[in-house]
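Saturday, quiet lab. Running sequence design on the structure tokens for the scaffold JK sent over.
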């Protein structure tokens, strides 16, 4: 009887360890980008590996050199042709420094790799803006949490480059 109990415990332990989900990675692409003041910046949030995702919430923090313009769905939601929802989560505390969205497939589930979401920003002033993951919550078809890690990026905003008057004159004459 004790031998049977030990075998049963080993069997349950192996079933429990094999049913553990492996953590997936969510990251910003491009991880490093350079833009000019006034440019619109689009960053992709991609997932490396996922299966049977039903919904997710993503919240990223950004610096004061950027202004959030909202988000749009990526191919993880649009690829199946099934209905989906993307709800931007507004930043209600000053200063505005977080961009987030709640996303869900309404009928089916989705699989990765793929683009989860596109975050759009406007470059306001010169400087660097780290894009850091504040919160990520992935859910499967049974509303169970899916383990995940996330990585951010950096947006570098360049200002105008001063030139000498004589240089500007040469450039103008070359293109007339």
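Result came back. Writing it out in full:
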């Amino acid at each position: 009887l004790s031998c049977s109990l030990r075998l049963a415990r080993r069997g349950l332990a192996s079933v429990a360890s094999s049913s553990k989900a492996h953590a997936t990675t969510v990251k910003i692409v491009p991880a490093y980008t350079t833009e000019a003041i006034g440019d619109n910046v689009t960053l992709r949030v991609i997932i490396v590996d996922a299966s049977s995702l039903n919904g997710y919430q993503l919240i990223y923090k950004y610096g004061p050199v950027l202004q959030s313009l909202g988000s749009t769905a990526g191919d993880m939601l649009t690829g199946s042709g099934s209905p989906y929802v993307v709800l931007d989560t507004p930043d209600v505390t000053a200063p505005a420094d977080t961009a987030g969205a709640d996303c869900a497939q309404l009928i089916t589930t989705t699989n990765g790799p793929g683009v989860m979401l596109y975050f759009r920003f406007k470059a306001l002033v010169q400087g660097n803006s780290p894009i850091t993951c504040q919160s990520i919550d992935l859910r499967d078809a049974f509303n169970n949490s899916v383990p995940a890690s996330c990585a951010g990026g950096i947006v570098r905003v360049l200002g105008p480059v001063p030139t000498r008057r004589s240089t500007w004159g040469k450039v103008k004459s070359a293109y007339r």
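Notes for JK: The two ends are 96 Å apart (CA to CA). The first helix runs from residue 2 to 19. Ask whether to fix the surface positions before the next round.
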